[in-house]
Design brief:
alpha/beta; SAM-dependent_MTases_sf; methyltransferase activity; transferase; three-stranded mixed beta sheet; methyltransferase; FkbM_mtfrase; seven-stranded mixed beta sheet
Amino acid sequence: MDGHETPRDPYIHSRGLKIPKHPQITTGRVRGALRGGTYERKECDAVSRVVRAGDCVLELGGGIGYMSTLLSVKKKVARVVSYEANPMLLPYIASVHEANGVKNVEVRNALLAPESGAPVDFHIRQNFLASSLDREADPEGVTGTVQVPRHGLADVLPEVTPDVLVCDIEGAEAELLPAGDWSGLRCAVIELHPQWIGQAGVQAVFDAMQRAGLTYFPKASEAKVVTFRRGW
């Protein structure tokens, strides 16, 4: 357990961060992983090895705001631009940032796509974390549908000019990453989803990083979390 909590403590303490308790988000397995310091452990271990103070980070898949908070507080990055398609998570992400004094993270409720275009349907489920673009994953669980803006890579990358990419987008990496010019990156931490993208999708991600001049870095990679960096 990371830190000491009392029954009245409104926070879960995790890796030195304060994570506000929430009846629908910090439940069960998530709560246990946060308290045990194992939440997003592979990604956290990877960024701890390759991210530097002063970096600009582009995060795809903001989740509950944990990684962006860790980057800001522990790694002292200059800026994080975080894309999170799930609008139901935005107030909670803001509460995580506020609890930890984070002021250098910009959260964009949008989908980063190979090309800009019309908004896309995002399906809300009672379990916030199960909400997704894929209605058919659990059609009975959908409680509402909202439209989320779509931002194109060709516009976003020159605007943000990231040093680091942190990407966990549930299989969309196989389509998105090959469509971008990532040659400005120093490193990238990507969670692969081979169960959805298959061997061809995994290869497409590796090829995209190679075209950008980045090399697979095994010391900061574990299982489905792969890290690439420039040079050796």
